[in-house]
Amino acid sequence: MSSAPEQGTVQEARARGRITPERPAAALNGSTRATVRPVLTRPVWPGTPTPLGARFRIGPEGVAGTNFALWAGGAEAVELCLFDEEGAEARHSLTELTHEIWHGFVPDVRPGQRYGYRVHGRWDPWTGARWNPAKLLLDPYARAVDAGAGNDYGVLPPEVYGHVRDWPQQHVADTVRDDRDSAPYVPKGVVVHDDAPDDEWTDDRRPKTPWADSVIYELHVRGFTERHPGIPAELRGTYAGLAHPAALEHLKALGVTAVELLPVHQFAHEDHLLRRGLRNYWGYNSIGYFAPHAAYAASGTRGQQVGEFRRMVRALHEAGIEVILDVVYNHTAEAGELGPMLSLKGIDNRGYYRLQSNDARRYADYTGCGNTLQVVQPHVLRLITDSLRYWVSEMGVDGFRFDLAAALARSFHDVDMLSPFLAVIAQDPVLRRVKLIAEPWDVGSGGYQVGSFPPLWTEWNDRYRNAVRDFWRGALPDVRDLGYRLSGSSDLYAWGGRRPYASVNFVTAHDGFTLRDLVSYERKHNEANGEGNRDGSDDNRSWNCGTEGETDDERITALRRRQLRNLVTTLLLSTGVPMLVAGDEMGRTQGGSNNAYCQDNETSWVDWTLRDEPGWRDLFALTSRLIGLRHRHPVLRRRAFFSGRAHSADGLRDLAWFTTRGTEMTESDWYAPAATLGMYLSGRDIPGRDARGAPVVDDSFLAILHAADRPASFVLPGPPWADAYEVVVDTSAEDQGAAPGTVHRAGGAVTVPGRAVLLLRVGSG
């Protein structure tokens, strides 16, 4: 390690003339330029500016090699750096420049070759220029990443920063350039084979589940497989583990149609976590938008992870399950001005990131993670769309959930639903055909955009989450909001041709309490994160049923399990697309943590022993049964919003709401305090036709949701609504393995147990 830089502020040095564009701040750093060990060098032929990235191919005169192309707007020079097995580096100047793309073809460079770039330019942070050729940079288009020894250190070494991280005066540390070589400490790109067959991911090889028929299961590749006893130990925590028959068996038995994988793009760990002995577990810290995260590969990190990921997708498809990726294009792992220099920051900081208009040293942060990608820049937009198309066309995925999507929809400042990003997606022949899910908010001003995304998009509906949680904990002042959420949230989505499946309904997600913790804790317990329990939301809308945390009190335990059944049943009977979180179907707990983003341990991993415990086994059985019921009955997965109007002479409507008296809800009933709501779904008034053009006809159902702790008498509506009702689900019963089957005459009263859902099928009596 070099000696520490001398004391004094950069402003003082600038005032004395020691820092100018001709004499960069590196003059204040006593370190020397990194040395390069001699290795075999190769000629660099001109190559081509497209495609971007490193692409192995047959070049001129039949010579095999790799074409390298890097967009680096504003750079003065670019060096391609190749690394041998011992880590020795050979630098090759890319002298060809076409439309700000530096490119060259290097003969005999084959798949498995590790590489990176050094980019030369001005160091002038006051104008946003942060070029530093001492820092090895990851290719944004690298299709595989080898972290190597860079993943073994306990903290980020100072060499990975473009500035002097430990400069005594931290408020100006980002302006002092660090000339120490970062190559030994940073991940490197890997040249890979483009070996996906042209017909690998055609439509006839994909499940192609319609949106209305979808049931999404959010899971973490490592967390879902790490403790599964049926998966061989060497495959746990990996893509191969998720493709294993034992993992697929659970998904198929549950009945979900799609897995939504928490981020699998290559990501990095934050220094503040490493210093506390933790790691980034969720993965919302991307640094490689084309590369499957290497740590989830069982087969190797020199390109093998690409084939392993493809095999995982193929196995899921063969099981009838789609693959949706949770993607993080709003920011990168390079954080703010005091963050590390790993890739984009050193390639063209001003081109890739939004900088503050009045202070180019600082980043515009709409993400809460230190930086925001400048999506309005054409090459940044190209990076994102090229990445998306790659994952669809060459890796086989079926859709994307966009983290903090409002940040991507910002034009220059405000969120704009006519923004370049949304416009490009809408016209792209590949991307407009896959599933697109927005997390419709960011942390900036005006960032909350639930209900605002255009057709083609679905959205995480947090208003659904809040209303359902509040109803079952007794915190809703009335049932107006609940009625909207149960019936598809037409108040949010019935515009511009959008459909009920524009709403992704969820009660829990990776971010927040698990379902079990939602009924066991009223306060977050994030002490293990080392942040004084200040992290994580304080707005949990949870109820612990009388005792904080786990308890041996059988009465409280029984109530909690009933509440879990109520929440799952409500979710799967609601119109829209339901999303479950891995392990919630069998009572997974995080011990009250509502922000387990850095808990890569048993706190976050699915505990498969729960599946064998009677109470939790019953919850799994109910969840599976409800999903099966949903698949069999189109009235529960409508493709169009309810009209609420009578479609026949007898006055029967497609949707009707009832009070406990058996009468239809009036305007005053909607505004009155209530803990009970009856929802009638008519199966004979389903709009649309089946594949052969025949009308869609189904059973009709009455769902009664009762959130009070005491039983309630509910009068069952008589003709024309029904002559009789058969109980299909009663959440007051622990064992839901088979339909209760009790039949009740219409017009009579049924006793609804306290805190329960009754689902009744309409019969003729």
UniProtKB/TrEMBL annotation:
Q: Is Hydrolase among the key words of this record?
A: yes
What's in the keyword line of the UniProt record? Glycosidase, Hydrolase
Q: Disordered: where is this region? A: 1-30, 177-205, 526-549
> In the UniProt record, does the keyword Ligase occur?
no
* CDD domains linked to this entry: AmyAc_Glg_debranch, E_set_GDE_Isoamylase_N
- Where on the tree of life does the source sit, at the highest rank? Bacteria
Q: Which Pfam families match?
A: Alpha-amylase, CBM_48
Compositionally biased intervals (Polar residues) = 1-10
The record ties this protein, via SMART domains, to: Aamy
**InterPro entries for the chain:** GH, GH13_cat_dom, GlgX_Isoamylase_N_E_set, Glyco_hydro_13_N, Glyco_hydro_b, Glycogen_debranch_GlgX, Ig-like_fold, Ig_E-set
The residue ranges flagged as biased composition, category Basic and acidic residues, are 526-541
Under Gene3D superfamilies, the record lists: Glycosidases (3.20.20.80), Golgi alpha-mannosidase II (2.60.40.1180), Immunoglobulins (2.60.40.10)
- GO MF: amylo-alpha-1,6-glucosidase activity
The Glycosyl hydrolase family 13 catalytic domain, residue ranges: 218-630
* BP term (GO), one: glycogen catabolic process
Q: Could you tell me which PANTHER family the record lists for this protein?
A: GLYCOGEN DEBRANCHING ENZYME (PTHR43002)
Family membership noted in the UniProt record: Belongs to the glycosyl hydrolase 13 family.
This protein is called Glycogen debranching enzyme
Q: Which organism is it from?
A: Streptomyces formicae
